[in-house]
Specification:
Elements lengths: L5 H6 L5 H9 L4 H4 L3 E7 L11 H13 L3 E7 L4 H4 L6 H20 L4 E6 L4 H12 L3 E5 L6 E3 L2 E3 L1 H12 L5 H10 L12 H12 L15 H19 L3 H4 L2 H14 L4 H13 L5 H10 L14 H7 L1 H11 L15 H6 L24 E6 L2 E8 L7 E10 L1 H9 L7 E6 L13 H9 L7 E4 L11 E6 L16 E5 L4 E4 L3 H10 L10 H9 L13
Parallel strand pairs: 1-2, 1-3, 3-4, 9-10, 10-11, 11-12
Antiparallel strand pairs: 5-6, 7-8, 8-12, 9-13, 13-14
Helix pairs in contact: 4-11, 6-7, 7-14, 8-9, 8-20, 10-13, 13-14, 13-15, 19-20
Bound molecules: FE2/S2 (inorganic) cluster (FES).
């Protein structure tokens, strides 16, 4: 790292004796104090499986740092487990936690003068939160994923948490018994680790490799794999190497690196949440990335990964056939990736992938770009009179690409779920869930409870859903989220009325309210914002600072 290390400013010289006294108290010796001081920022919590084990990886990272010539101390961040908050007030804290985690890492690194860090994430928001901090602080740093859970099995059917949500919908529809639901519940998530499919956690881990800020191959081993300890140790060593080479996150997080990440996102049909997160990480890195970049890439990149929720397999299967490098090597060979970008190995992406030998065995997890599952990307951006600033649809997770139906609006997810329970949602309906955006939610809660229940109730092909909230990476069906502007700031979604015609056309990228423009204008003139859901505390603070979903729902000082 060029210039004097932050730790030397804080802990070197006679006047800093009091600061050193504290580091001696936690076990650092004279020799340790002479070395660069690195951190391990670990998102750890026993309150759910996703980050249950991450604390155990810390000692391997520290050993790697020591082997590379540094000292290391660890600190934790909070974790909000999305699937525990899902469908409740708790879910409003999920996206909010991304900002809290980024801010926590910033505060700890700055306040304690660390020279760099390895950040360990697991559950959905812990990952972009740490990556945002890497970009914001721009100190040498490496991202390390804690790994996902092994899949569950019911016979030879692979199960993930998505199956439990859908089973609830099937139970509501009377298609399965309570005992069958209980059996799925017991088998779905059999080990610690993040959700097993290519939902948001595995998507963000995959993108950490595509961005070049994690070691190649580190995303796919399951949480229980012994290779996790190896990647932890190697990440510690690699941190010391990037420090020595003077490589900082913003040298890696260039516009081309983000285009690579979007390419991998589209090719794998990853989570729509990644759009928010990549926009937010790019913002922290000072890179101008917009929804148009996602739109452009999605039109030219084929969808090649047969992974849940759109496909059949889970992350453990991708690991078996070669991991994320297999996907990236195919995309690089097809001329779809920028190969000259720098990565945390100190080498270019191309150099990393040249060293990768694709497995010879037949496999059905990753297809050839020339013979893809679908010719265009897994996620598409929609615009139109219902979403002038944009909306997001996961095309990979639905067979239906065009839908015209009657609007059934609900103010909040809970009301929609109650209507489903009363069997009031029928084929041909376009369920509109509003006031769940970044400000309105606040925190853009995910809608897995209702989307999975719709699919589980057998309505997945006959009902579409549109919301200014978000979706879980596990969501499937024709579900459009991130509608901007959101209802809480007077977006057109706020004035949709029961029975209005709505057109969704994924091919042409349109999302239109088929109501005369004059009528929409009249309704908007009469519209008044509702009272905020929270007047004090974290959610109220967040609502006052958060931006539009089309900008990544970043928080900015007023
Ligand atoms: Fe944590 Fe899915 S809820 S990764």
């Amino acid at each position: 790292m060029s210039g004097r290390l932050p730790s030397k400013e804080r802990y070197g010289g006679v006047y800093n004796a009091p600061h050193r006294a504290f580091l001696r108290s936690v076990g650092l010796t004279d020799e340790d104090l002479g070395k660069p001081l690195m951190a391990v920022a670990v998102a750890w919590s026993e309150a759910g499986p996703c980050n249950f084990h991450t604390l155990g990886l810390v000692r391997y990272v520290k050993e790697g740092v020591r082997a590379g010539g540094g000292s290391a101390l660890a600190f934790p961040t909070i974790v909000v487990n999305d699937n525990i908050g899902m469908g409740s007030e708790g879910m409003r804290y999920s996206l909010v936690s991304r900002e809290l985690i980024a801010d926590t890492v910033e505060a700890q690194i700055q306040a304690h003068a660390f020279d760099g860090f390895v950040g360990i994430g697991g559950c959905d928001k812990t990952q972009p939160g740490i990556m945002m901090a890497m970009a914001r602080l721009n100190r040498p740093s490496i991202y390390l994923y804690g790994g996902s859970a092994e899949p569950g099995f019911l016979g030879d059917r692979r199960l993930t948490i998505e199956d439990v949500y859908e089973a609830v919908g099937s139970y509501v529809a009377g298609a399965i018994t309570e005992e069958e639901l209980a059996e799925i519940e017991k088998r779905a998530h059999p080990t610690y680790g993040a959700c097993a499919g290519l939902f948001t956690a595995n998507t963000m881990a995959t993108l950490s490799e595509a961005l070049g800020i994690a070691l190649p191959g580190s995303a796919s081993p399951v949480a229980t794999a012994s290779r996790r300890a190896m990647y932890a140790y190697e990440s510690g060593k690699a941190l010391m190497r990037v420090l020595e080479l003077g490589i900082r996150p913003r040298d890696i997080l260039t516009y081309e690196a983000f285009i690579n990440a979007i390419t991998v996102l589209m090719a794998t049909g990853g989570s729509t949440n990644a759009i928010l997160h990549l926009l937010a990480i790019a913002h922290e890195a000072g890179v101008k990335l917009t929804l148009d970049d996602f739109d452009k890439v999605s039109r030219r990149v084929p969808y090649i990964a047969n992974l849940k929720p759109g496909g059949e397999y889970v992350m453990a299967d991708l690991d078996q056939v070669g991991g994320v490098p297999l996907v990236m090597r195919k995309l690089l060979d097809a001329g779809l990736l920028h190969g000259e970008v720098l990565t945390v190995t100190g080498k270019t992406l191309r150099k990393n992938l040249e060293g990768y030998i694709p497995p010879k065995a037949e496999q059905r997890v990753v297809y050839e770009p020339e013979k893809p599952l679908k010719p265009a990307g897994g996620i598409r951006i929609l615009r139109g009179s219902l979403a002038p600033e944009g909306a997001v649809v996961k095309a990979a997770a639905s067979e239906i690409l065009r839908f015209e139906g009657r609007a059934k609006p609900f103010d909040g997810e809970a009301a929609a779920f109650e209507a489903l329970k009363r069997h009031e949602i029928e084929p041909g309906d376009v369920v509109i869930i509003r006031y769940e955006g970044p400000k309105g939610g606040p925190g853009m809660p995910e809608m897995l409870k209702i989307t999975a229940a719709i699919v589980g109730a057998g309505l997945g092909k006959d009902v579409a859903l549109i919301t200014d909230g978000r979706f879980s990476g596990a969501t499937r069906g024709l579900m459009i989220g991130h509608v901007a502007p959101e209802a809480a700031v007077g977006g057109p979604i706020a004035v949709v009325e029961e029975g209005d015609k709505v057109l969704i056309d994924v091919e042409t990228g349109r999302l239109d309210l088929m109501v005369p423009e004059e009528e929409v204008k009249r309704r908007l003139e009469e519209w008044r914002p509702p009272e905020p859901r929270y007047r004090s505390g974290l959610l109220a603070k967040y609502a006052s600072l958060v931006s539009s979903a089309s900008l990544g729902a970043i928080t900015t000082p007023r």
